[in-house]
Structures are given as C-alpha cells and as structure tokens.
C-alpha cells in the first residue's frame, strides 16, 4: 500500500539526510522487513551474499536484498525503482556497519537494566519496546547474545527511530565479546598427507619452525576485523602450502586452527569446508 504523501515525504527526507551524512539507508515495508528479493537476486545471490561485509549495489533494477541494498548514492535515490519503493515504504532503515556503528538492541526492561549495569553509557534511542544503544565502531552482528539483546552492525539493518540522546562512545570490548561464541570442541577429520618422495628429509628442521607458523596463523585469524570467512580460508591455504606435504601437521595443530576460527564465529562445518577446499586446491 502506498503511504500518504506526508508520511512518504517524511521517510524520504529522513533517508536523504542520513545518506548525506554517510549513513547507508534502505526502505522498509510494513512489518519492518525489506522489500522482497526479485528472481534475479533469489537467495541473496546479487550483492547480498553472506560473506559480503559492506553494502553493495544490486545489479538488477530494484533495491531488493536487505541490508546490502542500503546506499548513500544519490543516483540510486533518483532512480524510478527507488522512487516507487519509497512511495510504499513504511519506515526507514540503515546499515549500521556501513556507517561504522554498532547498535545494541535492547528489547525489554530487563535487557535495559542489564545494559545500564554492564555497558558503558552511550547514545540511546527509544524503541517501541526498549532501547537502541549506539556505539562508534563496527563489528559482526549477532542475535540473542543475551535474553532480549541483539547486536546489529555489519550485514544487518536497524530501523531509524531518530538521532537519540547522549554522547556516542567508542565500541567497547565488552560489547565485542558478546558476539564471540565459545568454541565447540572439534576433532578434525583424519588428515592424510603424502609422504616426501625418496625418503627426503623434512624441510622443517625443528618443531619450533612449525609451531611458530601455527601461532602466526592463529594470530592472523584472531586479528581479522572483517571478511572472517575469507581470512580463515586463506590462512588454512597458507598453512597447508607450507606444511601440508611433509607429514608435520598433527590433529593438535589443526584443532588449534579450528578453535581460533570458531572463536571468531565460524561454525565447525565452515571450518571443515574451508580446510577441505584448501586441500583440494593444493591437490592434497
């Protein structure tokens, strides 16, 4: 249903003001959900793939894939398809991660009480049932990190409900820690690597060489601030390139890498897939 002209104009004015300040925005239809995917973009194949960390333009004519449709580009706002979308929009949403922001979404009074006792004060925005606490800095999004608490930043959208009150503070470690899942104990599948031909001596002359390499790989994964999927795969590939053909790698070494990846939010399945894909690429 097309919104009345005054409401439509209010939504569009808010969206244009946000976009001008560098905040990527998108229209929401009734129910606080994005406009549905078109066939060309089914399953977020067009710009909204799960491994994307920044919003990307859609290659079809419509703003059709959730958070990744958020934009600051005035040319998009002037397109006929976006004009139609804003005529039907019930609300304005924005991509917090695209503006280097994190929203701690507190859904009820108990969640608000917890935040006041546990988190640094920052800018707050009243919502229908609770509050949004806004911090300066982006991180991975996560749902249900505590009862009534969601985190919306990269690869997520939040409804725009006004600028809020208070001074925004830098994203604290205590909020980042909320999205870190405890790693699940994983026993990697047995890895068989080819022995060196002709009984050659292993090039890794001391265990310290391998241990240093594994430690560096763990650090690379742990310090990844974005594109975690890609970082895990590239790190696994580098480890296997250096150590995958001489028989030095043990299950303990592989478990260390898997644990580092899971601490960054990767699932055991994703770890196994990344490891398998790296081995396949190297012909192991």
Overall average residue pLDDT: 79
Terminal Cα separation, in Å?
A: 57 Å
The 3D shape can be described as: globular
How many strand segments?
10
Question: Which residues sit in consecutive blocks of at least 5 with pLDDT less than 50?
Answer: 48-56, 190-200
Number of helices: 9
Radius of gyration: 23 Å
Oligomeric description of these chains:
single chain
Class derived from helix and strand content: alpha+beta
Helix content: 25-40%
Secondary-structure element pattern, one letter each = HEEHHEEHEEEEEEHHHHH
Biggest pleated-sheet summary:
6 strands, mixed
Which percent band covers the strand fraction? 5-15%
Please give the structural blueprint.
Elements: H1 5-20, E1 25-29, E2 33-34, H2 74-77, H3 80-88, E3 91-94, E4 101-106, H4 109-118, E5 123-126, E6 131-136, E7 142-146, E8 149-152, E9 158-159, E10 169-170, H5 173-176, H6 207-222, H7 228-243, H8 251-263, H9 268-282
Written account of the structure:
Helix 6 (207-222) runs antiparallel to helix 7 (228-243) and helix 6 (207-222) packs parallel to helix 8. Helices cover 36% and strands 14% of the residues. Residues 48-56 and 190-200 have low confidence and may be disordered. With 284 residues, the chain is an alpha+beta fold. Strands 4, 5, 6, 7, 8 and 10 form a 6-stranded mixed beta sheet that branches. The chain contains 9 helices and 10 strands.
């Amino acid at each position: 249903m097309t919104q009345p002209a005054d409401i439509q104009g209010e939504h569009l004015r808010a969206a244009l003001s946000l976009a001008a300040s560098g905040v990527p925005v998108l229209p929401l239809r009734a129910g606080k959900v994005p406009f549905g995917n078109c066939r060309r973009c089914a399953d977020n194949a067009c710009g909204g793939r799960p491994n994307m960390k920044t919003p990307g333009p859609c290659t079809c004519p419509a703003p059709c894939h959730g958070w990744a449709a958020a934009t600051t580009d005035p040319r998009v706002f002037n397109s006929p398809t976006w004009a139609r979308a804003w005529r039907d929009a019930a609300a304005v949403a924005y991509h917090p991660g695209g503006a280097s922001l994190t929203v701690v979404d507190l859904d009820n009074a108990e969640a608000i009480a917890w935040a006041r006792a546990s988190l640094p004060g920052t800018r707050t925005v009243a919502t229908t049932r609770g509050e949004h606490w806004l911090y300066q800095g982006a991180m991975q999004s996560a749902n249900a990190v505590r009862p009534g608490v969601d985190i919306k930043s990269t690869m997520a959208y939040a409804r725009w409900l006004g600028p809020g009150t208070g001074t925004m503070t830098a994203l604290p470690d205590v909020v980042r820690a909320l999205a870190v899942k405890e790693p699940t104990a994983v026993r990697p599948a047995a890895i068989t690597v080819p022995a060196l031909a002709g009984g050659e001596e292993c090039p890794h002359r001391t265990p310290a060489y391998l241990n240093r390499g594994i430690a560096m790989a763990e650090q690379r994964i742990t310090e990844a601030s974005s594109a975690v999927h890609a970082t895990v795969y590239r790190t696994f590939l580098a480890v296997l390139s250096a150590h995958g053909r001489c028989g030095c790698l043990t299950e303990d070494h592989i478990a260390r890498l898997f644990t580092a990846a899971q601490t960054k939010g990767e699932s055991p399945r994703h770890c196994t897939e990344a490891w398998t894909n790296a081995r396949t690429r190297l012909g192991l």
